[in-house]
Every structure is written in structure tokens, then in C-alpha cells.
From TrEMBL:
Species, as recorded: Aegilops tauschii subsp. strangulata
Matches recorded under PANTHER family: GLUCOSYL/GLUCURONOSYL TRANSFERASES, UDP-GLYCOSYLTRANSFERASE 79
SUPFAM superfamilies to which the protein is assigned, alphabetical: UDP-Glycosyltransferase/glycogen phosphorylase
Protein name: Uncharacterized protein
GO terms of biological process kind: detoxification
Length: 214
């Protein structure tokens, strides 16, 4: 039931392997009216779930054993993850298959040219998804932290959030990193220059288990 202020109910049902506090809940669950569109899309994914013969889940048991056990018993779920386009599986079956077939944002990938100029495993990738909302103070603190780290970084800031960055911070970031409004996620993750990531999206974590395993 929404709003969900914490994960106690799910934990009691055996659906979670860890305890979640109020600060751990996604905004669309804790405050449904704050993100109505994302809430509608998220809930819509589960329509007809109880009537399905089987449910394929892009995850794997070692990542979340308690949750997998609950899904298997409740919805006859079958773990099929992590799923990736064929190009990243190193089997040469479909070399042209490089994307999932969808992107929330489109744009050129100037960041790939920038990555080519960086050393192996040297770049920090920072991206917080398509629905996260940070105020100017938080972005300023994050940006200064990246600059002060002394490490090259690729920072994805959505175009509708970029106005929150001060001119001074942008100029400071340009000395060591690159700010973009969009990047081709899989290509960037698979690039030799990426050495550390910061992201909150589950799909991103799944990609990393395969693309960064070496």
C-alpha cells in the first residue's frame, strides 16, 4: 500500500532481505503525488502479474537471494539476468545488437571521444538516472567533491537540471572532467577508461556485473 514510509511490511512478509528505513524508500513510493507519471509506469508493469504462468526477472539469485526466493514462491518467477545486448556477450552472434532498443534521452555521444583520451580505469562515472531530483546545493557539493578528488570524471546531468549548476562550478569541472546531459550507458560502462561508477538504478548494477567483471 502507498505511501510506503519504510520497508517493515515487506520485511515481515519475507519479500526483503534487508531492513529499509524512510530514507531508503524511492520518492514515488514514499510520496506518490510527487512523481505521478513514474508511479503510473512502475505500477503498470505489474498489471496481470497474478495471472501470469511464469514471470521472467532480469536478476540473479546471488545478487538478492531472499528476494528471489519470495518471487519464486509467489509468482513462479524465473531469474534470467543479467540480460545484455549480444554485442557485450563476446560470442559474436549478433555484433550489431548494441542497445536495449530504448533510451529516455537521445543525443550525440561526444563523451566517447573524451573517454578515448583517458587512461585505463581512471574515470569516475557519475549518473543518477532519469527521475532523480537534486537541489542546487546538493549538485554544488557533489560537483566540488568530484573536482577536489583529482580524478577525471564523466558526470551526467540532465538538461533540465543543468541550470542548477553555477558558472563557476562548470568552469571548475571542465579542468578535469566532462559534464554531459546524456551518455550511451552500455558503451560507456564497457569502455576501458571507466574505473568507478556511482549510480542508483538497478539495471545499471546488473550491467556492471557483466561489463566490469574483468
Amino acid at each position: 500500500a502507498l505511501p510506503a514510509t519504510d520497508g517493515r511490511a515487506l520485511l515481515a512478509r519475507g519479500a526483503l532481505g534487508v531492513e529499509l528505513g524512510p530514507e531508503d524508500m524511492p520518492p514515488f513510493a514514499a510520496v506518490p503525488e510527487s512523481q505521478p507519471t513514474f508511479l503510473k509506469v512502475s505500477v503498470g508493469q505489474f498489471e496481470g502479474l497474478e495471472d501470469a504462468d511464469d514471470v521472467l526477472v532480469n536478476s540473479f539469485r546471488d545478487l538478492e537471494p531472499k528476494e528471489v526466493e519470495y518471487m519464486e514462491l509467489t509468482w513462479r518467477a524465473k531469474m534470467v539476468g543479467p540480460t545484455l545486448p549480444s554485442f557485450y556477450l563476446d560470442d559474436d552472434r549478433l555484433p550489431s545488437n548494441k542497445s536495449y532498443g530504448f533510451d529516455f534521452f537521445n543525443g550525440d555521444a561526444l563523451c566517447m571521444d573524451w573517454l578515448e583520451k583517458q587512461s585505463n580505469s581512471s574515470v569516475v562515472l557519475v549518473s543518477y538516472g532519469t527521475v532523480s531530483d537534486y537541489d542546487a546545493t546538493q549538485l554544488e557539493e557533489l560537483g566540488n567533491g568530484l573536482c577536489n578528488s583529482g580524478k577525471p570524471f564523466l558526470w551526467v546531468v540532465r538538461s533540465n537540471e543543468e541550470h542548477k549548476l553555477s558558472k563557476e562550478l562548470k568552469e571548475k569541472c571542465e579542468e578535469i572532467g566532462l559534464i554531459v546531459s546524456w551518455c550511451p550507458q552500455l558503451e560507456v560502462l564497457a569502455h576501458r577508461a571507466i574505473g568507478m561508477i556511482s549510480h542508483t538504478i538497478f539495471l545499471f548494477i546488473l550491467c556492471c556485473t557483466r561489463l566490469l567483471q574483468d
